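Fold it.
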Amino acid sequence: MPIEQLKQLLRTRRRRLVAGAIVLVVVLAGFGLRLAIVGADAAGHLQRAATLVGQLESQLRGGDLAAARVTAADLRRQTAAARADAHGPSWWLGSALPVAGDDLTAVGAVADAVDALAAEVVPPLLDAADGMTDAMGGAGKSKNQDLRSVASAAPRIAAAAAVAEAARQRLAKLDRGGLNARVRTALDQVDAGLDRVVPLLDPAARAAKLLPALLGADGPRTYLVLFQNLAEVRATGGMPGAFAVVQADHGQISLVEQGTAAKTLRDFDAPVLPLDADQEDLFTNRLGTYPADVNLTPDFPTAAALIREMYRQRSGRAVDGVLATDPVALAYLLSATGPVDVPAGGALGGRLTGATAVRQLLSEVYLKIAAEPDQDAYFAGAAKAVLDKLMGGVPMSQNLVQALARATDERRLLAWSAHPQEQTEIARTPFAGTLPERDGRRPTVGVFLNDGTGAKLGYYLTRSVQLDTGRCLDDGSRPLRLTVTLGSNAPKSGLPRSVLGLSLAGEGVIRTNVLVYAPTGGSPVAARQDGTEVDFGTGYEKGREVAVFPVDLAPGATSTIVVDLVTAPLDTRDAIEPRLITTPGIQPWATRLTPGRQCRN
């Protein structure tokens, strides 16, 4: 080929290459513009969705379910639009690009996750909440239909839990190292939201499954409701004093009977049920013969089964379950629902409020009402007034939800069912009143208190606890150090006999038996009380070794017990966070937990 022809051909090809490059740049620019528009659309929808989520959360907390449904529908439209924007061809091509592609992939994953929550998680939760609200405020047949609608939502909530968990796992797999800071922040926010939502869905599904039957959707149910008197301490909270029997029939709740453990049930000559040998060694047969002592054990199912049988033998009626609460929980509820009138108030006055309930029920009743029958009448009147208030249909509100949540977190609301399948479900909830059967990677220590005074001085008992985790031992176990401090702020004089009681440890002295439950497979090693090494009694309950320490406190005194424990060898060398479970008191324990650091290889 001649030289001039070759030069001409190269010039032509160069022009074509340049033209092609220009066309490619224009195409890429157009694609980038389209991608920017689509990205902006998706981001806008997600931003509006975020605003709606906050609005929806506020409406649910306030109990405005009608408004929540409108917001949920709008939320669904925004998340569906964001998801559609994030799955078009432009987005798909852009996701393959370096740098920006990672951001687009992440935003697409966020859009998918939020849309899944709006489409498959929120609706069944709203249906269940709607059904429960209508059931508690409705009447007759419609109430039962509302309960059945709650039950029908249960499998959908269980499916929603799987959806939410899948979304969480997908987001967890994203490489966040090179993401734009704003995209990474958005991902972290969605992660945090999923971390809050996912643990709640299984309990919500369980509640939706259980509550209709518990409320009598399939026929009448009767329950023994125990009011634990925290002035005389027991492991689950306080001595079972007053009780009520309530009936639930197709959502309608009514009061059947009231009584007291001491006078209605009375003591038994022999245990009403065969006792577990370990429990009998720890607590003697009083567990099964004295109604006031069934909850010397912190295992609420044991206490509930025993007192149910005691009630059956005295009344001839076998209840379907046992519930327990205490004056502090009632105070939380009254703060949310408003005060109640107590006809038998006498010297205490006729009104019980959230601010006064604890003081009146645990202290002033003994200081201002001398005769025991009059005290019992006041307790019965207060219990009936609160039950009437709750059974009359209390509208759901943010304050009421928070009150119930707080009481549950502090183990002040306990439940047990005589129906095995229901009890299996309850056993997996915070209402079970049990220690975990296996601690797994979270060593669990229990600190439970039992009064040894025979008095009502528990109102003056102060308590704090600290649990520190040591370094890994060679076999993979961990040392733990538990520090329990009890104090008495009881006055030195002026308390009536109804408060001083039997004075088994001396006049005005609070004797408390402190039970320390070691982690599963672990054990207590040594103990010091007020700086002096002490021996301690031991026993076993539900697979845990238990150390027992008696503590006597004169008015104004304090005492500190330091217990060294060791866990079983753990199957992890990662950092661990121990759990601490305690007897509920007048005030929450002053608590401090120190996690265990990661083991060095």
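The CA atoms of residues 227 and 326 lie 5 Å apart.
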